[in-house]
């Protein structure tokens, strides 16, 4: 593709409140570079819609009657869906944040996020970069140095550097340029980081690292 920044990002909205769905659709359709393919009112319908329409990003609420967001995220992960899931919710408690990220969400934002922050987050999620709102990052930081940190293999200094850049939403290519290493080496470091932290993707690795006090 000649200009990657010019591509249109496709998304679906999964939320049980019609007013929220309408608001998000209107917001994204009024901005260049986005296309809303559809909406769903619960997690089960959201999984079906994402499977059929294959959007770049799924904006997912968490607490919905008829099928919650965490179960839907886990199902999309199980199916190997290409779509990245960006949680957009009013809840930032530990019991909501960590399960969503561990289930496979690429990012986690609160519904009071400013319009431009939401647009930036969707673009980052579409690129596979981790997105955590400041409020959610603070929740994770509050859990640092937990007893669960003991007994896990330590990250090397370079692995910590890579993980810190991942936490800032830096792409593999950007990490390689910043650390003067190849993208293949970055991927190798990430493989080791995931194994050491017991994480299956970038977002889960960042969440686990905050939880164990490796980051922050």
From TrEMBL:
Extract the Gene3D superfamilies matched here: 3.40.50.2300
The domain of life for this entry's organism is: Bacteria
Keywords for the protein's UniProt record, in alphabetical order = DNA-binding, Phosphoprotein, Transcription, Transcription regulation
The answer to whether keyword Phosphoprotein applies is yes
SMART domains for the chain: HTH_LUXR, REC
Q: Which residues carry this modification: 4-aspartylphosphate?
A: 61
Give residue ranges for domain Response regulatory: 10-126
SUPFAM superfamilies documented for this protein: C-terminal effector domain of the bipartite response regulators (SSF46894), CheY-like (SSF52172)
Q: Where is the HTH luxR-type domain?
A: 148-213
Transmembrane residues, as ranges?
Answer: none
Record's protein name: Response regulator
């Amino acid at each position: 593709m000649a200009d990657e920044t010019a591509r249109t990002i496709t998304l679906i909205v999964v939320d049980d409140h019609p007013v929220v769905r309408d608001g998000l659709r209107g917001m994204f359709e009024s901005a260049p570079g986005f296309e809303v393919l559809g909406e769903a009112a619960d997690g089960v319908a959201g999984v079906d819609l994402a499977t059929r329409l294959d959007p770049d990003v799924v904006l997912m609420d968490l607490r919905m009657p008829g099928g919650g967001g965490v179960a839907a995220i886990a199902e999309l992960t199980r199916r190997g869906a290409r779509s990245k899931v960006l949680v957009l919710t009013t809840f930032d408690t530990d019991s909501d944040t960590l399960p969503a990220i561990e289930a496979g969400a690429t990012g986690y934002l609160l519904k009071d996020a400013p319009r431009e922050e939401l647009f930036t987050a969707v673009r980052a999620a579409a690129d596979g970069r981790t997105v955590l709102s400041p409020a959610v990052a603070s929740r994770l930081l509050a859990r640092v140095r937990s007893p669960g940190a003991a007994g896990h293999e330590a990250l090397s200094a370079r692995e910590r550097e890579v993980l810190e850049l991942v936490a800032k939403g830096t792409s593999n290519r950007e990490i390689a340029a910043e650390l003067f290493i190849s993208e293949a080496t970055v991927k190798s470091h990430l493989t080791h980081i995931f194994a050491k932290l017991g994480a299956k993707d970038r977002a889960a690795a960042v969440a686990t690292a905050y939880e164990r006090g490796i980051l922050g």
